[in-house]
Structure prediction request, 250 residues.
Amino acid sequence: MQLKYSYYWFKESITPDICQKIIDIGTAKIKQEKEKGLTVDAYTFGDEQKGAKPNAHPKGESTTQELLQKGIEYHYVRDSEVTWLNDQWLYDLFHPYIHSANASAGWNWQWDYSESFQFTVYNPGGFYSWHKDGGSDHFATYKRYIHGITPIPMKDNGKFPDGYLTDPNLIGKVRKISMTCNLNFPGDYEGGNLKFDFGHHSDTRFHECEEIRPQGSVIVFPSFVDHCVTPVTKGTRYSLVLWTCGDPFK
Prediction:
C-alpha cells in the first residue's frame, strides 16, 4: 500500500503533568502486580520474549538474517515490562489525535474500537525488535476463544492462544492504526528510539523517529508497518501505546 504519509505526529502535545501522572499510575500498577506474584514481562506472538527464552541472545534491532550470519540462531525479540490501563480519561485524551492523524494523513480508515492502553517500561538493555502490530487483513482477525470448545489449549502462562480472545468488541476485527506517546524527557534515557522499516522500495527505508523524543509527543501510524524500539543504553524509557481496531481492509 503506497501512502503519502507513513506516520503522523504531534510534538509535545501531552503536558508534562499528565505524562508524569500516567507514569505514576503505570509504575504503581506494575509494582502491585509484582507484589501479587504476577508477571509483568512483555510477551509476543509465538512467545519470543526474553522470559520465555532463557540464555537466548537479544535480537535488538538486528534482522534474523543478520544474526544468522553471525551464527546466532537462539534469540529473543522483546525485553520490557508492561501493564494495561483502561481509564476513560485516557481514551478521551488520545482518541482525538488518532482521529486527526487518520484524516490529516489522508488514510480515512474505518475503525470503531480501541484495545487497552499498554504502559511500557524499557529498562537499560530493553528493546522490542522488528514487528508489525497487526496484519490488517482477514487472516489477522481476532477469533473468539470458547473454553472447552476451541480446539487449542490455553498457554501454560494462562494467556489465550495467539489471535484468540473473549472480548466481543474485538471478535472479527483487526488492528489498523497504532499510537505511541513518549512519556519522559529525552534526556532521561539514551537509545530507545522508535524506528520504522518502510521497505525496499522506499527512498528512505529505515527511519529513527527522533522527532518524537520530546516529552508528550504522540505518533500515529498504520499497524501493518514494520517497526522496532532500539535498545535502551542508559536510563529508563516510558511509553503509552494504543491500537485502534476495525473491519479488515477490503
Remarks:
- Residues 2 and 216 are 29 Å apart (CA to CA).
- The chain has one domain: 14-176+231-246.
- The chain has three helices and 18 strands.
- The mean pLDDT is 95.
